[in-house]
# Entry
Amino acid sequence: MTQIIGVFIPIALFICITISIYFVSRFKYDAITKLGGPIPTSPKTKQSWTKTGIVVIGFSIGLLLIWGAYTCGLLEDKDSDSFFIIGLISLVVGIAILIAQKIEDKAKQ
# Structure
């Protein structure tokens, strides 16, 4: 039974990707024919990697805190510890996003 499911998962993924590509191309074609020209695009702006870098640093700090908790013996290999791990990483990444947003707002001013 698991082998059959293992075969159907890639087939289903392929079908989903194919249908997505079909509908995206159909939408673009309909937009071009209704508007009578190419789809207008917004002007491209240079992306600042500061926000992304700060979020990655926050994720790394969260992983280091988890590693420290394991080495100190605060966490054991129990199922209930996974909630703490996910919560701590989410908290640290959320704080990193807030810090990155404040830095980005200061840079715009």
